[in-house]
Amino acid sequence: MADTDLPQALVQRGLRKELMPRHLAFVMDGNRRWAEARGLTTAEGHEAGGRALKKILQLSVAWGIRAITVFAFSQENFRRPEEEVDCCMELIEQGIRDEMEEYTRNGIRLHVIGDPSTRPASLQDAVREAEEMTRNNSRFHMILATCYSGRWDIVQACRQLAAKVQDKLLNPEDIDEAMLAGHLSTNVLGEFACPDLLIRTSGELRLSNFLLWQSAYTELYFSNRMWPDFDEDEYLEALKNFQRRERRFGQRKPSSQESN
């Protein structure tokens, strides 16, 4: 696809099709602080965050991005007040159920990653139903990280490999980085399991235990906007910033003298 085939908003920002990321990850931070600043409840802040996610998903699909992974609820978030935890679980479940038909219409496949044993039964039922309903979709992949942590992901992958060793299906010396990566939750995306760009909102400058293995060479973009305020303009700015970077993956760019 030529640059002239890009949506007008991307062309006006000078974005190039060949430099667009295939997989983006989002740490959707700042819902509670956004609500407090407006005299709203925490629940209303999370509801606003849900609306922002829906808009970002629509833009990502329209712009030809292949996948996004969003950090909806971490294992550490269970330390929050029970009322807020219950609210988040209910909103996540409702969001999945409300969007299933739209995912199907737009060719979006939903994957939910994280520890299923820590999810309420009703949420887990919604997850199974949505994953089954969208499993034949391939236009776009949406990964919802719920009850997830990066350390948990690495541990569960190691346990899978250990079980294969115990069952004499695998020799320990055959385990390498590629094999371990193939057992991580995001491996459902195959060749683009690792995000090209990770965006975190609210001004915090950390990963917070999200996609730790997968983000080894991911470009990071930190926005001062609270998640409910992360809009199309800020998304475009993040993409423009990404396209200005030179990704070397540990290699050194040859000097002009070396290239002659």
From TrEMBL:
SUPFAM superfamilies: Undecaprenyl diphosphate synthase
EC number: 2.5.1.-
Entry keyword annotation includes Transmembrane helix: no
Molecular function via GO: ditrans,polycis-polyprenyl diphosphate synthase [(2E,6E)-farnesyl diphosphate specific] activity
Protein known as: Alkyl transferase
PANTHER family: ALKYL TRANSFERASE, DEHYDRODOLICHYL DIPHOSPHATE SYNTHASE FAMILY MEMBER
Family the entry assigns: Belongs to the UPP synthase family.
Enzyme class name: transferase
Pfam families registered for this protein in UniProt: Prenyltransf
Source species, domain of life: Eukaryota
Keywords, alphabetical: Transferase
An individual GO BP term: polyprenol biosynthetic process
HAMAP family to which the protein is assigned, alphabetical: ISPT
Organism the protein comes from: Panicum hallii
Transmembrane segments: none
Lineage, top ranks: Eukaryota, Viridiplantae, Streptophyta, Embryophyta, Tracheophyta
Gene Ontology CC, one term: cytoplasm
